Amino acid sequence: MTTSHRKRRQQRGVTLVELLVVIVILGVLGTIIAVNVLPAADQARTQAAATQIDNFSQALQSYYLDHSTYPDNSQGLEALVTPPQGLRTAGRYRPGGYLGGNSVPADPWGNDYVYNYPGEFGQFDILSYGRDGRPGGEGPDADITSWD
């Protein structure tokens, strides 16, 4: 072979077929990853909401021990981070509140938790409406509650 022929052979680029094969392989890998990772993210959000509801329940129990009552519906979960107006036992309110942080966190989907006192299923009810933000649903759209 001549030197010019070798140079041309070394300078060859990627063919269209090779490029298409790489694109197909990347598409298949992306699909496999999406199918396996997306459900895990929904499960993690559901578990995070259940854990946060448990944290609220424990904080409400501490609030009850200090004040002999739970916050009413108008005070809501905000009473765990800020002393409610007119609290008769304000001197017993814990410095820093009953939850870490300055505000009540939203659920993993960015919606507010629902708090009811007195509760229909317990002393109080706390729930997240899940991914869709509406009552009911299945899978990641299902409600996450304090009484389950």
Structure, described:
With 148 residues, the chain is mainly alpha-helical. It has a single domain, classed as Glycoprotein, Type 4 Pilin (2-Layer Sandwich). 41% of the residues lie in helices and 6% in strands. It has 2 helices and 3 strands, in the order ααβββ. The protein has a 3-stranded antiparallel β-sheet, with helices on one face. A hairpin with an 8-residue loop joins strand 1 and strand 2. It is elongated, with a radius of gyration of 28 Å. It starts with a helix and ends with a strand.
In CATH, the homologous superfamily goes by the name Glycoprotein, Type 4 Pilin
Helix content: 40-55%
Average predicted local confidence, pLDDT: 89
Q: Which overall shape is indicated by the principal axes computed on the Cα atoms?
A: elongated
Beta fraction: 5-15%
> Topology as H/E string?
HHEEE
The top-level CATH class is: Alpha Beta
Q: Oligomeric status of the shown chains? A: single chain
CATH structural architecture: 2-Layer Sandwich
Structural class by secondary-structure content = mainly alpha
What's the Cα radius of gyration?
A: 28 Å
Number of strands: 3
Summed up, the helix count is 2
Poorly predicted tracts of residues = none
